[in-house]
Design goal:
Order of helices and strands: HHHHEEHHHEHEHEH
CATH class of the largest domain: Alpha Beta
Strand content: 5-15%
Protein name: Altered inheritance of mitochondria protein 36, mitochondrial
Distance between the termini: 136 Å
CATH architecture of the largest domain: 3-Layer(aba) Sandwich
Number of helices: 10
Strand order of the largest sheet: 2-3-1-4-5
Helix content: 40-55%
CATH superfamily of the largest domain: P-loop containing nucleotide triphosphate hydrolases
Organism: Wickerhamomyces anomalus (strain ATCC 58044 / CBS 1984 / NCYC 433 / NRRL Y-366-8)
Number of domains: 2
Number of strands: 5
Largest sheet: 5 strands, parallel
Radius of gyration: 40 Å
Shape: elongated
Length: 240
């Protein structure tokens, strides 16, 4: 009896469980019915949210534009901005040909000798003078950079830009840039960006035996572009 009763009990339990799963409870029925009904207010609320977002964006844009007009950004560049600008520049054709602007570099073992140099038919450019001029000009693109108390050395290429600016502004066609360039990188950058140099004139001291030439002079000697003289009076003769 016990064994038979236990055997008959298992199917009844299984049937009861299956019926409870297949037949939803009243609470479950209400949840299903409510979830299937569309919410008439849902559409308008969503559209209102989108409209509010668009209006907020328009107002923000107008405020930003008004602030920019009242406080225009200073056109001067910081040192980091200058470097970023230089990094973006791609190698391109030089601005001038030698027929448009003829440029000679003039270096001396005694740089002070060249500061009062004057030669008829030539415009003398001293990079240090150009640098000081830009430093005093508050409207200059480089004003902030040159007056930054933390900067100690000039960024490579800055003097190239200043000399190029002067060449563009001048009606002269012949130029002598004194005591320049300071290194080979500056020289290469100048010729790539501005114009190919005619010659480098090296004013040697009487004691110079040629062993103390700086890297720039040595570089131009390798391309046969150095004229060596021992007196500033020879400069005019050389350029005639």
């Amino acid at each position: 009896m016990l064994r038979g009763g236990f055997t008959n009990f298992r199917p009844l339990c299984q049937q009861s469980t299956l019926r409870s799963i297949r037949t939803p409870t009243p609470l479950l029925k209400r949840c299903i019915n409510n979830s299937s009904k569309p919410d008439p207010d849902r559409g308008p609320r969503f559209r209102n949210f989108i409209a509010l977002g668009i209006i907020s964006y328009v107002i923000l844009a107008q405020v930003v534009e008004a602030v920019n007009k009242e406080n225009p950004r200073n056109k001067s560049m910081s040192e980091s901005e200058y470097f970023k600008q230089q990094m973006k520049l791609k190698r391109r054709k030089a601005i001038f040909t030698q027929d448009e602007k003829s440029v000679w570099f003039l270096k001396s073992d005694d740089p002070e000798k060249l500061k009062s140099l004057k030669i008829d038919g030539f415009e003398i450019l001293d990079p240090n003078v150009l640098l000081e001029k830009e430093k005093q000009d508050k409207d200059s693109l480089y004003y902030a950079l040159l007056n930054d108390a933390e900067y100690k050395t000039l960024p490579t290429g800055l003097l190239v830009d200043l000399i190029s600016k002067q060449l563009k502004a001048s009606d002269s066609k012949k130029f002598i840039v004194i005591n320049y360039p300071s290194d080979i990188k500056e020289s290469v950058k100048f010729e790539e960006k501005v114009v190919t140099v005619k010659k480098l004139i090296h004013l040697k001291s009487s004691q110079d035996k040629g062993d103390d030439d700086d890297d720039v002079v040595k570089y131009y000697k390798t391309v046969n572009k150095v004229d060596e003289i021992k007196s500033d009076k020879d400069i005019t003769k050389l350029l005639e």
